[in-house]
Amino acid sequence: MKFFLDTADLAEVEEAASWGVVAGVTTNPTLYARIGGKLADFETHIGRICKLVDGPVSAEAVGEMRADIIEEGKRLSAIAPNVVVKVPTTIEGLAATKALAADGIDTNLTLCFSVPQAIMAARAGARYISPFVGRFDDISEDGLAQLADVVLAITNYDFGHKVEVIAASIRSAHHVTQSALMGADIATVPYSVLKNLIKHPLTDRGLESFAADWEKVVNA
Ligand code: G3P
Questions:
Q1: What is the value of pTM for the model shown?
Q2: Which one of 12, 52, 193, 201 has the fewest beta carbons within 10 angstroms of its own beta carbon?
Q3: Pocket of ligand 1 (CB under 6 A)
Q4: What's the whole-number mean pLDDT along residues 32-49?
Q5: What is the mean pLDDT of the chain?
């Protein structure tokens, strides 16, 4: 499984990229608003993220109608070669995905919550599909079970182009572990969660005891 960083924060992208585990970045309107982003700076900001990571950077088209999504998608994809256009999983999003794919523009179908949605996204030409785990949990459903169904359904078929499932709306190490065990291609993870994934109390305890024992060696 690859890790994407789910953020619009440049400092987070720069720091996490230095750990050697970040294969891409996903953003959305909420994440850009969270860093105080302004409309006029949006494309420049996406361009900066694209320079910091060697991999796909998802930038969301906010239009609801296909013509608007296609126009936005073309503008966003012109920012950098590694831009992927995030498109809503709707009828209009499917039509826009088909048109953008015909132009060689990769899309990431966002806000996916079911197997039929995922299969339709793949058939329309989506390069990435993002089932949202945490938000499904939020409505007292089982987000991981839904993700597992999507992973299985997508791997059952050859869509004639590469399709990768991104486990999105990831909130915990448990979500990451289970996404990996079920074979999700990618998990897009917030910085705070990614940072905690490397931590384990037994690692800390082991380091403390090694350091204490080394002191004995030094002072012997
Ligand atoms: O990649 C989608 C993600 O940003 C949504 O996460 O926590 O807002 O549901 P969340």
A1: 0.96
A2: 201
A3: 6, 26, 28, 130, 132, 134-135, 168-169, 171, 188
A4: 98
A5: 98
